[in-house]
Amino acid sequence: MRQPLVAGNWKMNGSRESIRELLDGIKAGMGDVNVAEVAVCAPAVYIADVEAQLSGSGVAWGGQDLSSEASGAYTGEIAASMWLDFGCRYVIVGHSERRTYHGETDEMVARKYAAARAAGLVPILCIGETLEEREQGITEEVVARQLDAVIALEGVAALNDGVIAYEPVWAIGTGKTASPEQAQEVHAFIRGRVAASDAGVAAGVRILYGGSMKPDNAEELIAKADIDGGLIGGASLNAGDFLGICKAAG
Ligand code: 13P
């Protein structure tokens, strides 16, 4: 019932030229991919190029962050309506790099989720614990708190309009993937947390795994009952690796 999604998060990488080559490579290989949905989340300045290249391709695109405000005097910020203006379907909210380097709190992330949703974008809500938090045994407490901020602001039904990405911070860009069992345990907890408010929403919401996902570990992760796809950083910058993950998910 849940349609798998594989989304790339390019982070602050690429150039006009490298992105053109990357998307040419992805488009050329999409014929062999049968995962339900594929998307890439690009740096804002390249979004017009991405739109031009991906329109009609079957690959969706999106942003990596947005403002919680609709418009106005917010220098440097990007509104949900602007992403939509360039054909975006998705926007990442609350990535751990935003939480860590830009001081985004659970409440700020919840407001961004709300802004995306109000505009008709699909927010990809990132949650996950640091290594220190895992070692302290508070993983569930941390992801529950991050999730509950959105439920408190928008109501549990708001999760019908978004996607959750569980990204253990210690697995991001480190080459240390959570084992399929470790990941499944947290995914099941997240789904259970949603189910405590609404079983129907819990059954439908997609929960992606992110953190050093590669072609050779994707299949085992995505085979788990509560893992509905991936949010891919480093491996999404290489067409062959990204397609490999898409194939594994399909
Ligand atoms: P890596 O795949 O590079 O570990 O990054 C994961 C991530 O942060 C995706 O948002």
Describe the structure.
The protein has helices spanning 16-29, 47-54, 80-85, 96-101, 106-119, 131-135, 139-154, 180-197, 199-204, 215-222, 239-249, and strands at 5-9, 37-41, 59-63, 90-93, 122-127, 163-166, 207-209, 229-232. The protein is α/β, with parallel strands linked by helices and 250 residues long. It has one domain (5-249): Aldolase class I (TIM Barrel). An 8-stranded parallel sheet has the order 7-6-5-4-3-2-1-8. Helix 1 packs parallel to helix 2, helix 1 (16-29) packs parallel to helix 11 and helix 10 (215-222) runs parallel beside helix 11. The model has no long low-confidence stretch (mean pLDDT 97). 1,3-dihydroxyacetonephosphate (13P) is lined by residues 9, 95, 167, 172-173, 210-213, 231-235. The site of 1,3-dihydroxyacetonephosphate has 14 residues, from strand 8.
Tags for this model:
250 residues, alpha/beta, TIM Barrel
* Structural class by secondary-structure content: alpha/beta
CATH superfamily heading? Aldolase class I
What is the C-level CATH assignment? Answer: Alpha Beta
Task: Round the Cα radius of gyration to an integer and report it.
Answer: 17 Å
**Major beta sheet, strand line-up:** 7-6-5-4-3-2-1-8
Low-confidence stretches: none
The H/E string reads EHEHEHEHHEHHEHHEHEH
Q: Remind me, CATH topology? A: TIM Barrel
